[in-house]
Design brief:
The protein has about 250 residues and is α/β, with parallel strands linked by helices. The protein has two domains: about 80 residues, Rossmann fold (3-Layer(aba) Sandwich), CATH 3.40.50.10860; about 120 residues, Rossmann fold (3-Layer(aba) Sandwich). Helix content is about 40%, strand content about 10%. It binds ligand L34.
Length: about 250
């Protein structure tokens, strides 16, 4: 909803991933002036539609829309973002169908790189409901020792320097400098900051960090594409859960 240029790019990437995989998708690009009631009505319609397995409302939403009300309206069984409180609670308990796409993508990168989280000091910088909090929980489920840092954290660098696995999700360009990283650490950059017309940078100062880190993700081409891959996985899961493939 609205005309956020970054959202336009992300949603296009999601539609393309669906098309590439043969997943049917519908897009509703609502104008910024749409009322909350109209948006909620559309979600309720899609909740009921049998040929739709997953519903995702791309964030951010315009200011006059209550984000929480919107996310609460999505049927938890179709909630491929895992933002509904029911799914958030399931993640906390460790028994979940859907995993939020960005933190899930980070976990997949770690796993596919052959990195064992168990016993490692994991530091997550950022505490958003969408990334930081669920990220910490997923690392904890893999037996990491997890610290969540945020804007009020005292002596942040002292904490990040202890991290074997460092996840940066603050939304500040080049925030994590080389001297905040433990030599050999795994550094995962969730940030996508537009600093100039077509220039994207992460939350990690890549040039400095790559000299210190043992493994590091780039921006673009790191966590972003993984977010989309995990959305596809959640959508497949949703199709299985909802049995919306026409089978009885
Ligand atoms: N509801 N809102 C909802 N679910 C989400 O999972 C998201 N997110 C975040 C923003 N709002 C959301 C995304 O989809 C961030 N995000 C996202 C998705 C895709 C990419 C980045 C963020 C992506 O494709 N990144 C490319 C570069 C794209 C570009 O050129 O801007 C990359 O290589 O990082």
């Amino acid at each position: 909803m609205g005309d956020d240029p970054a959202s336009r790019v992300y949603v296009n990437n999601k539609k393309k991933a669906c098309a590439d995989l043969g997943i049917y998708s519908e897009e509703y690009a609502l104008p910024a002036e749409t009322t909350e009631e109209e948006l909620l009505d559309l979600i309720k319609t899609l909740n009921k539609k049998n040929d739709i397995s997953g519903v995702l409302v791309q964030l951010p939403l315009p200011k006059h829309i209550n984000e929480k009300t919107v996310l609460d309206t999505i049927d938890p069984k179709k909630d491929v973002d895992a933002f509904h409180p029911v799914n958030v609670g399931k993640i906390m308990v460790g028994d979940f169908d859907f995993v939020p796409c960005t933190p899930a993508g980070v976990m997949e990168l770690i796993k596919e790189s052959g990195i064992d989280v168990a016993g490692k000091d994991c530091v997550v910088v950022g505490r958003s409901n969408i990334v930081g909090k669920p990220q910490a929980m997923l690392l904890l489920h893999k037996n990491g020792t997890v610290t969540i840092c945020h804007s009020k954290t005292a002596d942040l660098a002292e904490k990040t320097r202890k991290a074997d696995i460092l996840v940066a999700a603050v939304g500040i360009p080049n925030f994590i400098k080389g001297d905040m990283i433990k030599p050999g650490a795994v550094v995962i950059d969730v940030g996508i900051n537009r600093v100039a017309e077509k220039k994207l940078v992460g939350d990690v100062d890549f040039e400095e960090a790559e000299k210190v880190a043992g493994a590091i993700t780039p921006v673009p081409g790191g966590v972003g594409p993984m977010t989309i891959a995990m959305l596809m996985r959640n959508t497949l899961k949703a199709a299985e859960l909802n049995n919306t493939k026409g089978e009885k």
